[in-house]
Specification:
5 helices, about 210 residues, nine-stranded antiparallel β-sheet, binds flavin mononucleotide, alpha+beta
Length: about 210
Amino acid sequence: MPDLSDFREEYGHDILTKESVHPNPVEQFRIWFDYAVSQKITEPNAMSLATVDEHAQPWLRTVLLKAYDDRGFVFYTNYDSRKGKQLANNPKASVLFPWIQLERQVIINGEVERVSNSESLKYFSSRPFGSRLGAWVSQQSSVVSSRSLLLAKLEEMKRKFKNGEVPLPSFWGGYRVKPKTIEFWLGGKNRIHDRIFYSRREDGTWSIERLAP
Ligand SMILES: Cc1cc2nc3c(=O)[nH]c(=O)nc-3n(C[C@H](O)[C@H](O)[C@H](O)COP(=O)(O)O)c2cc1C
């Protein structure tokens, strides 16, 4: 059995300073995201999404970032899923991009709102046929007695929508995480990592601070 206490990497190929980052964290995210894409890491748009239930218990899962701009960071899911119910009750989330290969992580906290129906429809229509069917097949996060039941439902939906036109389910769509804080973390030599932390002020401008690693 490997000794996990010996697992460690030496970081520090780059540095991040308050002066070198973009004043707007969404633009800074764009710079890092484009870099992550250029480095061909697996699914750079995969992010861990934390939501909190009515007992203050956090829950995590991976979702895919599908759009972002100054308004926020958008992912798509089933509104009746566990995360959907938690967001209905407590519309706040934390998301984390674990770009470990690049010695980087980005953490975004903020309030969450549903995207417009037309935005969801536009994205849904762009998905492949199988993915659109999948949205209809699965009552995400509910207990299901068997895999074969899901496959039977898939066949049923294939027959139902055999003309290729799959409508947007009312229970499916996007959420936008509206950032209040965004932290950029970069691994440094001797554990002197860089943490550049943006906080959104009331007037929409951003403060930038360095946090101790
Ligand atoms: C790489 C990866 C990408 C995923 N992307 C999504 C996604 O974009 N939307 C989604 O609803 N679930 C996605 N999932 C599945 C979720 O992690 C999760 O299982 C599902 O959304 C149910 O979560 P919940 O029960 O907490 O609501 C993805 C899983 C992985 C591993």
